[in-house]
Amino acid sequence: MLLSHSSELKMDAYLLWALYTGFRYFDIGESRKTVLLVKFDKRLDATTLRALRNAGLWLCDFYVGYSCATVTASIPNLDQQLADLKRLGAEYCELAAPVAPPTQDEGPAPRIAQNGPATVIGIIDDGCPFAHLHYRRPDDPSLRVRYIWDQGGSAPSGAVPPSTTPFAYGATYGHDQLEEILSRATLQGVVDEDAAYGLTELPSLRGATSHGAQVMSHAAGFARKIDGRQQPKPLIGRTDLAFVQLPPDALDDPSGGWLEHYGLDALHAIRFYARHTHKTSANKVIVNLSYGPQTGPHDGTSVLERAIDEMTSTAIEENYQFLVVVPTGNNHQLRAHAEFDLARRGGTIDWFVSPDSQVPSLLEIWLPDGVTLDDVEVAVETPADEHIVASDILPEPPKPLTVPDDTQVLIVAIEGPPPGNRIEVIIGIAPTARPSAGSGAAAFALATPGIWRVTVEPKAGKTVPGVAHAYLGRSDANMGRARRGRSGYLYSPGYDPKRFSRADEQLDVGRENAPAEVVASGAMNGIGTGTHSLVAAGYRLSDGQPAPYSAGGPTRGNRKGPDWAYPTEESRVLAGLLAAGNRSATVLRLTGTSIAAPQYVRELAAMPGSNALPPPTPTPPSPPAPPPWLKARAGAGLR
Fold this sequence. Notes:
Shape: globular
Structural class: alpha+beta
Radius of gyration: 24 Å
Number of domains: 3
CATH class of the largest domain: Alpha Beta
Strand content: 15-25%
Largest sheet: 8 strands, mixed
Low-confidence stretches: 500-509, 610-624, 634-639
Number of strands: 26
């Protein structure tokens, strides 16, 4: 029997899992608030927004005119507020951020008098070296960092205080404030970059490099020239850089689930800056988001993907271009995806759960269209040989602390997002180590690390078509962040880990999968399977072959794989590409598809027609055709 909530509002399995466990794996603090990503049945108007706020739910005015929005709710009153959301037109919601950011006074939306840019390059990342020489070059005054939203920033203070935001959290620096900071940090015509950064509370700028510095260097076209790598074309007209600094709470959670909240808020903040803070609006807005989860429906139906599609379509209706570029992901060899061929009776895979993990371990299973738990059995065998079946889960509406604190594993199954409505099953295993901080550090039992066996197979007497897909949630730390756990991995008997070190480079086309097998195909970024998202893969310059980590398709929806590929490796023995760090004198290497996406952004920004109206169709401008292997990786069932 599938779970449901008393509100009858459709929601994702993570929200039900959090409700069942009373949010006990999260330090919800004194505010006791959470953030939901909600899909409404129509575009929000001012009347509905006021009604939501009157019900104790909060969302930013920027979401008026859109049907997908982030909504802050109260955990103690969540049951009632979910009912209020249903009453006010919500059709589906997801757990966006288990813990809401600290709130402060809602700030007014800024308005700048002078003319605006032709193009805005938005970057959502960690580390914005706005004082770097590249972004204050006297020979190119058109390219500047003119807007920063620090989502983890505090209330305005300091010599050059930032501003509060319409989102009621974080702090923003506009062009005038950034120029004042640079002026105060300039002595005898030389900018002291450390002094400039010291006048802000921006994180990740004390060291030599950051993820955001490398990404921004590629997006702006300042990465180091390398033989065989085509240099970007000049930009057309004034181009502004608008940077959203992700908060520590998000970056310290490597799962990527927080993107639903902070990512969507950031997209709307960049959109608003580009379109509504100048007398003349930008006609092209291109946003780089070099993060993503391994989990998700992978068919374009997640709320964030639908929100990106909606923002892109709305921009076309309003005669401008809004393009969101994401990397395909570095998941190809991580053993984080498995397939269960139910037509061949499915089977069992091993899930290696890591020790010393301070965060829950999560595995997401998506059943084929029309298949329910009446047709298949989803079961887990613990390291202690305890057998737990999904159909044994509680059918009652969840209440806080329904599940005892000594529970090591919980299986939650629910109908997934519309219009697909496929069954989503998550297997949540408690942390295997105590959190290093947090008020709930000792409030639950630890799970046993080791081999947890996962079985997905038809029930006796049932004939079930299709393939069930399993996606492992990520736990490895993001670049520059404290390690709180390791992701573990999936294993099946036919898996050969040495396959990837041979000369054929994963090209194992023609080999049939076992009925239950770990596969590398179909491991694309969980927010990169929407209709309008633009997805960049990585390849090696030396031989044109795909980077071994660069994930490919196919997806479970209409998308076959990544759109284009850009170099992310020089050769087999020289990993990554050179780009600027946080200081003007630093040049460092970064590897991964995170640097493929900003190269795509830079090419889109430089394309002719930046000042023209967009085409009448939703098809964005495209670079030259991708390498031939990209199509093969996208759809040929590579493992």
